[in-house]
Amino acid sequence: MTPGHEPQHAAAETAGERVAAEVVEEVVEELDLHPVTEHPAKGPEKVDDELPSMSEQISEQLGGVRGLIESSVPVLAFVLLNVLLGDIGLGLEKKTALYWAIGGSVGSALAIGAYRLSRKQPVRHAVNGIFGIAVGAYLAYRTGDAKNFYLPGILLTLGQVVLLIGSVVVRRPIIGYVWGVLANGGKHDWFHNSRLFRTFQWLTLVWAVSLFVRAGVQGWLYLADEANAIGIVRILISWPIYAATFAYTAWAVHRVTAAQALEAAPEKA
């Protein structure tokens, strides 16, 4: 991009932009992601030999397949125990079945954390899972209603939707900042690239829609008092929707960066 042709939104980095970038970078510093450098013609390339790809890095930080399974076990335990011990199964009193379900869910989350500790494996995902399960379990216990076990997750997801849409409105798309940290060495020069900027604007909206669908379905079941259905839906649709959205995001960004790399490459004689 030649001087004098920068998009208007790239005119001058505001204090708000700098703060947003620094906050994202500080958070992701804890993830120990590898930086990448950018070649003017070839685009991003690895700094050291055999560094993991962007997809591999994100998969590692999310826990991969194992993390997916471990995060689903406490929810599955809650659903199964609540169903098998309640009206559909052994016919225990509603609160009794609920307390057993809470115990099974929290117990399985603690067991996963203890197992990881015993094998000296990272426990970040397990700790996050225990915290989320504990909050939901507390609400379900206090209210005596199984559906409140899922309320924190529903509200958190809706909060993320609001943040994503808000970032688009103020022209600071969150997905762009995330990409800059994870795949662009912490640099946010995409903000001065009009094509990438527009791409991250609508990709951020795509993520907002995907999260809203996940939370919306669960919220509808919550209002309908279908506690067990919420757990089943949470397990069956949340991760497939996430995986599809992530795959689409990776494809969209690669399409733009690859096209710009070809345009920047010197013509062959």
Automatic annotation (TrEMBL):
Pfam families: DUF3159
InterPro entries noted in UniProt: UCP010219
Keywords: Membrane, Transmembrane, Transmembrane helix
Keyword Transmembrane: yes
Transmembrane segments: 73-92, 98-118, 125-143, 149-170, 202-223, 229-251
Keyword Transmembrane helix annotated: yes
Protein name per UniProt: DUF3159 domain-containing protein
